[in-house]
Amino acid sequence: MPPRLNPSPETLVTRAWADYALLDSGDGRKLERYGRYTVVRPEPQCFWSPRDPAAFDAADAVFDPTDEDETGRWRFAGNPIDSFPLAWRDVRFTSRFTPFRHLAFFPEQAANWEWLDARIRTLRQPKILNLFGYTGVASLACAAAGAEVTHVDASKKSVAWARENAALSGMADRPIRWIVEDARKYVAREVRRGSKYDGIILDPPKYGRGPTGEVWRLFEDMPALLKDCAALLSDDASFLLLNAYAARVSGLSLAHLMAEATADRGGVIDWGELALAEDGPDGRAIGLSFFARWSA
């Protein structure tokens, strides 16, 4: 039986928490608070005017892009800042000023972390696979909720950061496997082995390279990878979650791709976008990525 596709999109909104807030936005930029630091980053879709332009001028750090591929340089009001600790619920992690305009995690993903936390706490130590796991915040959110996690990323540096975050969170002894490998190669091998997982998370980039030069292209490579992931789901699996940032993708297109991959599993497919909302009762929201998730 094919899954039921929800007819309407859903917007999953991330709001401020103790260590993060979207303070203001406008004129193609957003003003955020990371711990005790205020940060300005480009956001072209913020066509509107900022509420407090002076607050942008007083930020601790500003990202100046150098091209359209999200690279650039940070400019600091005082001494340069390298890294600093943050937290989301039980997860502790290090935020870093990377040369790619983000700070080694994506705050809008907190909406997904909340959903994963609630879902996993209803299961008995499920086996979760996190592909393109980056610095491990989602993996640690799953582990904190009681999951056994396999974390896969092609970047040795990112996996090292993820392991550091596990230690910082007091989760170094949790059942987490840390694997540096191309996601497609790992999944294909797991399919041949007959491995099964109760939940799978995919948060791929638009473009990337594997540890031995493999090239990842979202539109070309995602369909086959998603089908292989569906083959890894156990008979009583709970979810398959896909998130994507590419400009030419939509929640609806991801939903149809998900429906094709899970055609014989029943269940339901939710889809839509992830957004960040400004702090305050009348805060504006910025849509930042799209998702589709199959649930049993």
Q: Your description of this structure?
A:
The chain is built from seven helices and 18 strands. With 296 residues, it is of the alpha/beta class. The strands form four sheets. Strands 1, 2, 10, 11, 12, 13, 16, 17 and 18 form a nine-stranded mixed sheet that branches. The chain has a five-stranded mixed sheet with strand order 3-4-5-6-7, with no helix packed on it. A two-stranded antiparallel sheet has the order 8-9. The chain is globular, with a radius of gyration of 19 Å. It starts with a strand and ends with a strand. 41% of the residues are buried. The mean pLDDT is 96.
Search tags:
alpha/beta, five-stranded mixed β-sheet, 18 strands, 34% strand
Give the arrangement of secondary structure elements:
Layout: E1 4-5, E2 10-14, E3 20-26, E4 29-34, E5 37-42, H1 53-57, E6 61-65, E7 72-76, E8 83-88, E9 91-96, H2 110-120, E10 127-131, H3 137-144, E11 148-153, H4 156-168, E12 176-180, H5 183-193, E13 199-202, E14 207-209, E15 215-217, H6 218-232, E16 239-244, H7 251-261, E17 268-277, E18 285-295
Parallel strand pairs: 1-17, 2-17, 5-6, 10-11, 10-13, 11-12, 13-16
Antiparallel strand pairs: 3-4, 4-5, 6-7, 8-9, 14-15, 16-18, 17-18
